């Protein structure tokens, strides 16, 4: 590990600091940690911790390229809050060390966390409350989807051209006896996977879903809906984030409760707004501080990144529900999105009149919401709001059951 300060070729306004931070880990796999250096209301440099041998000139050039193409091309818009919880929190705690120490959670791998009680009951309770919000919407139904998603689904609307950093593909060895026997012989001889493993793999037809709503669009591809509808599902989602801190704050393998709206634009907007109102009420019920603000997706590696972000923010197509996990940090636990006719046209989904449908979706990260809850209320259920404990009982009872 070595430290390096990179002076930025052009200062970045403080208002664009979050957009710069979103991209730095993806600039190079050699970047292990970073801090933004601010002076006089602008970011003037970046302090890096680098792993492995990498040329300073190469890192500097890559950072300059990203800043010029994807950060400074954006307008620094002040965040606009549309709601704030009446709950205030004076102190926070990091629950993860205690969860590990009590065997309530374990780190299964990079960005992967397994957990038992009391988190099991808490996550299931949060999901049940969100599910009830979804099923109260008109013409709502629930599905359970498989994990794997055909790559062609994401190809239909150009996902890989906007979010290459998140993509994860599922592959396998070629269906050939010579490949199998050669692989086994080399594996047994070396005692490890061969370095050229992927030269023997060819299937790129499936990927891991970055979120659950794409399963719903896939389900209704080329179909004419008899009526406007709402679909909700809970399932595993995966996004490669380049770096993960040891906690449940940001995971590679996580669980989403998704709600999708298909119909006219007014129907999608009304459903989204209803779920937002339900989410606000839920946060208050949970005794959580938090707020909702205008947001944008993490577009990356795209010439039109700045235009997409500006349009999304100006039209207020995306909101995020953010909950504090420390005195100086919040995390997004839910997002509320409108898509216009983009997905309806991309997947050939039409309404009763034969016209393309509009859509919207809402997604809640269940592990993130539970983690934020523990940061504010602690890991001992005795200190949790009665609105939760009255419904789930004693989570410890499941742990001691034989």
TrEMBL record:
Domain spans labelled Aminoacyl-transfer RNA synthetases class-II family profile = 142-381
Matching InterPro entries: aa-tRNA-synth_II, aa-tRNA-synth_II/BPL/LPL
User: What name does UniProt use for this protein?
Assistant: Aminoacyl-transfer RNA synthetases class-II family profile domain-containing protein
Organism the protein comes from: Actinokineospora cianjurensis
């Amino acid at each position: 590990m070595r430290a390096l300060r990179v002076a930025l070729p052009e200062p970045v306004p403080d208002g664009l600091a979050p957009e710069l931070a979103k991209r730095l880990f993806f600039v190079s796999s050699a970047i292990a940690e970073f801090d933004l250096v601010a002076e006089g209301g602008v970011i003037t440099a970046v302090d890096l911790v680098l792993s492995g041998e990498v040329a300073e000139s190469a890192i500097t050039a890559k950072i300059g390229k990203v800043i010029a193409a994807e950060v400074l091309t954006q307008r620094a818009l002040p965040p606009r809050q549309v709601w704030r919880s009446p709950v205030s929190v004076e102190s926070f705690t990091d629950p993860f060390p205690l969860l590990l120490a009590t065997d309530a959670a374990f780190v299964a791998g990079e960005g992967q966390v397994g957990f038992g009680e009391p988190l099991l009951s808490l996550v299931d309770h949060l999901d049940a409350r969100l599910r009830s919000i979804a099923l109260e919407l008109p013409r709502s139904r629930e599905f359970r989807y498989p994990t794997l998603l055909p790559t062609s689904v994401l190809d239909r609307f150009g996902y890989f051209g906007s979010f290459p950093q998140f993509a994860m593909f599922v592959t396998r060895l070629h269906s050939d006896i010579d490949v199998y026997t050669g692989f086994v012989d080399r594996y047994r001889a070396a005692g490890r996977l061969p370095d050229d493993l992927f030269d023997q793999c060819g299937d790129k037809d499936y990927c891991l879903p970055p979120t659950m709503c794409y399963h719903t669009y896939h389900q209704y591809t080329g179909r004419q809906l008899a009526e406007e509808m709402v679909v909700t599902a809970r399932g595993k989602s995966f996004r490669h984030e380049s770096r993960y801190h040891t906690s449940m704050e940001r995971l590679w393998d996580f669980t989403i409760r998704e709600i999708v709206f298909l119909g006219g634009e007014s129907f999608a907007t009304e459903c989204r707004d209803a779920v937002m109102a339900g989410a606000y009420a839920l946060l208050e019920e949970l005794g959580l501080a938090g707020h909702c603000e205008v947001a944008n997706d993490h577009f990356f590696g795209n010439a039109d990144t700045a235009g997409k972000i500006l349009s999304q923010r100006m039209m207020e197509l995306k909101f995020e529900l953010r909950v504090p996990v420390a005195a100086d940090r919040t995390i997004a636990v839910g997002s509320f999105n409108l898509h216009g006719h983009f997905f309806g046209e991309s997947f050939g989904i039409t309404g009763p009149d034969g016209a393309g449908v509009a859509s919207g979706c809402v997604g809640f990260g269940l592990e993130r919401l539970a983690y934020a809850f523990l940061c504010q209320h602690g890991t001992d259920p005795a200190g949790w709001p009665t609105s939760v404990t009255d419904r789930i009982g004693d989570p410890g009872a499941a742990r001691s059951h034989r």
